[in-house]
Amino acid sequence: MSASDGPIPHVSQSGAKTGSQQQHPPSSKAPPPIVAVTQVSRPFFTSSELKYLLQQTIPESKKVLYSQKKHQVFQFVFQLIKTVKFPLRVLATTMNYYQRYFLFNKWEESTSSGTNGTTGTPTSVQEAHELIIKQHERDPFVIAMSCLLLASKNEDCIKKLKDIQVVGNKLRDIDDQDSKGLYLDFQRKAILNIEFKILQVIKFDFLNGSTMNTSVDQLLVQFCKKLGIDYIHTMYSWLVSFDIMSTPLCLMIPSHCIAVAIIIITLNVKPKDIVHKFNRGEQQLSSHDLNVILESLDCYSQFRCPETLVNEGIIYVLDYYVHNMNYSILNEYMPAIDADTGKEQIFKFMDLKSRFNDLKILDEASCSERDMLRQDYYLKPWDYSLSAKGCSRFMLGNKRARFELELQFEQEYKKKKVSEVSSV
Amino acid sequence: MDSFETSTQFSQILRTLTPSMQSLIRGAHFALKYYQSEDYLVHTIVEVVDDPKVDLNTKSTIFQFIEVLVHESYTVSEQPKSVYNYPYVTALKSLLPKVLLQTLPGSNCSSLYNVYCNLKSISKTLKFNFEEYDIRFNSINESFTLEDEENIIANVEFPQVNEDDEVETQEPLITTWNLLIKKKKQSQYERLRLLRHKELCSGKLIEEDEMFNIRLGEKSQGGVQKKEADPQLLTKRQILARMEDDRESHKRSKEHLWMVSRPRDVNGVTEDEFLTSYWNKYKVMNEDEEKTLFADLEELNQLVAMSYKDKQF
């Protein structure tokens, strides 16, 4: 059984075969809604799948703009969580949702603060309101707030939506105080609409590769403690994990593998002269000590991380720093020139990357070709109207066995019906 | 307002108390405002708690109210130039054992956990070292003696917990803690007794009303009641109300746990946060923790494996 076949086409009562998109025509004799599409959550994608999905939602010409905006959104959410005092894991989950959202939804640039971008002239007040809400829904910052709202719930840090809105709007210098509170009201509706979409995009899968106690930053520190890594090198790893939070790596491999990948990189880089003010008295581990830890490290037996996934993470993180070192938070904590090599820090990552060139990474045999990707129902744009009618069902990959039993029951029931009819 | 009027109003407040912070604080401020009628108001608390018509949920809320009142009294008295001199504190302290027994009457320990939380918090406010009692409360299973086990097998009810059994001269907080620990033992004991002597209900569907019907006692087949209704047990409506209240108070208790304060003037992420929220917070996992984490991760790995189309590991 593979989970890759996405929605299971399922014969409805009316006899029509409903794929991922077909809907029941509304009719007076229509049977009550039955589950027409089942989606099994597949939270992780290979890089080809991600590339394919993004091609569908972001036009080639706007890719740069998208990443710039994403960087702004990351900064925005970070300032927001600072004000409302959320822990960093909320930021991580928010970015996870935000990036996941744009795998299945078109990215548009318009912002709700501007008035342009409306299409057509509204004929009624209600239509005008709907247009305003739609406009909000296209705003990446509003989408980010919606992701934050859901992330805060999932991470058990409850705040009222209005508080999030007020802080968010203040950070963006938007005046949301009109006499009737209409701005906040429309924005609120848009945020809730998007939240419902995100829920479907994540397939109501709240594990999402990061359950309560397994956010990358937390796991990383716990793993470092287990390996006996000292303060300064743990801090280095932690800074890397903060940089990686804004990348789509969390859509590719689960958090414990990201954590181990970062630790392995730290042990290889053996950073020196990290700027720090606490724990200065602590004896730092020597290069030799770090090597000993590295030699004895075993991804699976010590941390339950499949090696291929860790390798994927290592390559991704190295690649990230080769291209983005100057914009990273790590850069602010490192001296410009490395004491060991006498070169800029970035060369260490380049050197490592060439050394790690032959690591075994994710196998993409079934998703390297466009045609194969096109056949995957899971990667098709999702029709949100389907859920509004109660015709879709979402489940976790490991809960599917339960559903098969149900299918079996239904088939038996149908057989019974048929035999009843024929005997009459 | 004369003392009589004050206590009538106070009685009304207590009887309609809800576990929302707002309601509790409002009550506490009323009591503090009329601190000169302290004797009357404390007597009102006794009256309400003793009143058999007041349901258990409200009594549990009154215990919470005492916690809030003690805390508020401390806060206002500690302010510079305060006119207050810790009103209610001594009186409420000596009242605690009595209120505890009224809140956990007979063998009904449904408010046990709430009372435990409140008592912990009161002890903290009064700077009473309760560590030893806390440990005893949380390791109740070790206190079962051979005799207890024999009694469970023989289906003997746990002896009633009385205040009179405690040493009179000791500090009321100690008495309260001891009573609470006995109550916890009672609840654990009754649970074991129930598991041993009642049949497990499996395989048949139970009607909702029957499920909640713990108060009306067992019905015989003809529908005639075998036992008298026990007013110490909760009704369906009370159970549902209580679930809602507990959910609310649980949510409230978690509201601030996650807060992380960060320096304002720095733009990026800071070392301070790493030190306090990560480095100092996490210790090396012990065997049990690691086992739980690994079990979680293994389950996660299965989900991950199903996520990719090709076999990756």
Molecular structure report:
Chain B: It comes from [Candida] railenensis. Chain B: This is CID domain-containing protein. The complex is a heterodimer of chains A (424) and B (313). With 424 residues, chain A is mostly helical. Chain A folds into three domains: 3-44 and 380-423, no CATH class; 47-201, Cyclin A, domain 1 (Orthogonal Bundle); 216-355. Helix content of chain A is 55%, strand content 3%. Chain A has 18 helices and four strands. In chain A, the strands form two sheets. Chain A has a two-stranded antiparallel ribbon. In chain A, strands 3-4 form a two-stranded parallel sheet. In chain A, strand 1 and strand 2 (17-18) form a beta hairpin. In chain A, helix 5 (140-154) runs antiparallel to helix 6 and helix 5 (140-154) crosses helix 7 (182-201). The longest helix of chain A has 24 residues, at 400-423. By secondary structure, chain B is mostly helical. Chain B has two domains: 3-218 and 232-254, no CATH class; 260-313, no CATH class. Chain B is built from 13 helices and no strands. Mean pLDDT of chain B is 85; it is low at 217-227. Classes of the chains: A mainly alpha (424), B mainly alpha (313). The interface between A and B is large, with 63 and 43 residues.
Detail the topology: elements first, then pairings.
The complex is a heterodimer of chains A (424) and B (313).
Chain A (H helix, E strand, L loop, with lengths): L9 E2 L5 E2 L18 E4 L6 H11 L5 H22 L3 H17 L20 H14 L1 H15 L6 H11 L10 H20 L14 H12 L3 H14 L10 H15 L17 H10 L2 H5 L3 H18 L4 H5 L11 H11 L14 H6 L8 H5 L3 E4 L4 H24 L1
Chain B lengths: L2 H13 L5 H13 L4 H13 L5 H23 L10 H15 L8 H14 L5 H8 L7 H8 L18 H26 L10 H5 L23 H19 L16 H9 L7 H21 L6
